[in-house]
Amino acid sequence: MSDGDSSGQRAYQATKDQILSGAVRGGQLLSEVEVAAALGVSRTPVHEAFLRLAAEDLLELLPRRGAVVVPVPPREATDLLEMRLALESSAVRRLCRTSDTLEALFAELTDLISAQREGAAAGDEHRFAAADDAFHHRIVEAAGNAIGQRFYGSLRDRQRRMMASVVRSDTARAARLIDEHGRLADAIQRRDLAEFEMLLLAHLQTTYGVVL
Questions:
Q1: pLDDT tens per residue, range 139-191
Q2: Helix-strand-coil percent breakdown of the chain, rounded to 5?
Q3: Distance CA 105, CA 45 (A)
Q4: Are residues 145 and 199 in the same domain?
Q5: In which element (H, E) is residue 54 found?
Q6: Which of 23, 89, 106, 174 would bridge 18 by S-S if both were Cys, CB 3.0 to 4.6 A apart?
Q7: Cα–Cα distance between 116 and 170 in angstroms, integer?
């Protein structure tokens, strides 16, 4: 990788991380000059990074001004959560039918819940959100549906951005999320698909304030 490619990738990843983590919010203007100065690179790789992020619908380019962070479209949350509900429910359906390793999965999910609890206690929003993402992703991964895993993985950037917004806006929500994750894990351990689906629907709706 050339120095230019390396600088462009660094500018892309750093800017994207700021957007997905909520460090910069929808409607906020980003300056190529300021980003370049902060990263210690020229404007060219930053411009290229902005172009990539615009293609991902995360930035809207403004000629001679930089770019503005695109807010999460109101409909996107509903669309995303409908897909998560379908994929996670399908994964647990397969796990309940075929898996002989639910005890091991339950132990992994319990560890991730502990990581969430530790993140919340430390006031570490990033650690909390990462453990939340890992909890749900592990359920889909454990089911072994390769197509489902790839599709679910394609949702992770948008999901990360939504979770960052939730944690930032409602710190009291963390304790409820942890409790809900515990009940989801218990339903999986008991192979209770109906209970899992009911709990997951309520979990997604109350977390993100949407009706599915």
A1: 999 999 999 999 999 999 889 888 887 877 666 788 899 999 999 999 999 99
A2: 75, 5, 20
A3: 43
A4: yes
A5: helix 43-55
A6: 23
A7: 15
